[in-house]
Amino acid sequence: MDAFYASVELLRYPELRGKPVVIGGRRRAANASPGETFQTLRNYSGRGVITTATYEARALGVHSGMGLMKAAQLAPDAVLLPADFDEYRRYSRTFKDTVRAVAPEVEDRGIDEIYIDLTALVMSDAAGAALDPWERARDVAARIQQAVHEATQLSCSIGVTPNKLLSKIASDLEKPAGLTILREADIPTRIWPLPVRKVNGIGPKASARLATLGIRTIGELAHADPALLVEHFGKSYGAWMFDAAHGRDERTVVTYSEPKSISRETTFEDDLHPVRDREWLSRIFTDLCVQVASDLQRKGYVGRKIGLKLRYDNFKTVTRDCTLDAPTRDAQAIRRAAGACLKRVALDRSIRLLGVRVGALTRPAP
DNA sequence: TCTGGGGTCCTAGGACCC
DNA sequence: TCTGGGGTCCTAGGACCC
User: Fold this and answer.
1) Which domains are seen in chain A, by residue range?
2) Which residues of chain A have pLDDT under 50?
3) Cβ atoms < 10 Å from Cβ of A335
């Protein structure tokens, strides 16, 4: 989906269309000047990052993941809207259901992304036997875009390619509302010039290390010595990188998978001190456990592994976990176990984040 | 003026077992 | 008496993704 959260908000506030808008932050801060309907980034203060920016806002240099304070410097007049995840989830369900009605082999990749296996659909259509399968695939993709637009008034971008790796890259090439067909033969001209960062699985760390080896584009990666890559990135990741650069990817489209863990975490408005703010922290800690327990309840899971996450004021993050004898979804049991984990971390400086996780999930015995 | 919240997967060492 | 080899589970950290 194109600029998903922001696009959903523009349906609600059509008067903002064409303006730079960012989604992010927490509660609506009280800095709107009198007579102004929408809060802008100007004078924003507090923690929080941009989750989505409209294309007009991106043109000003802001992007998702950027701190709102920094974004305010670049785009003080951009409108800031708080995220409304319930609403985004509604639209997410609608667009996914719409796609499934056209092409049922859908893999969930988060709230605004999916993979679709069109193989059966394209190949089984005997009437289309005389047609180029790529042309048939293009037709199906165009139909999907149209159906999604009719159902949601939102646009999406699609990459039609031989596999998931290439589709992920291709879907990004002509955003928004792009429909990109990319065959294996197109890899040298269309994929190789791109920076390695465009490969799903090569993040900021790996691309920085590749840069030190003089490898910046996917093409340079494709022509690198595989032994060198294995030497620097390990046998598994190094070999995978090389294959990825050649557009090789054998992963199937997985239409269903069970969750592995459920967690809740919160970053405080201001850092809290373990001693000075003990009461308050304890309250937040318990709340997190209650929320996780209710998430487990609602989704129908119990878990054996209880985890604690803590981020200090210097952004260093530590985790502790323990495994229970029997799985649980009881808030008090989770709180007890997480509390025991907390005793194993140093509490000698202020913390900015606290989180609770339950893993090793199973469905409860009836 | 730093850096959200929800996830997955991988690695690596140690315990423990046969 | 100075020590194999394989397997699984547990824990901590980190990279990466949406």
Assistant:
1) 4-83 (3.40.1170.60), 87-185 (3.30.70.270), 192-245 (1.10.150.20), 261-362 (3.30.1490.100)
2) 29-30, 32
3) 21
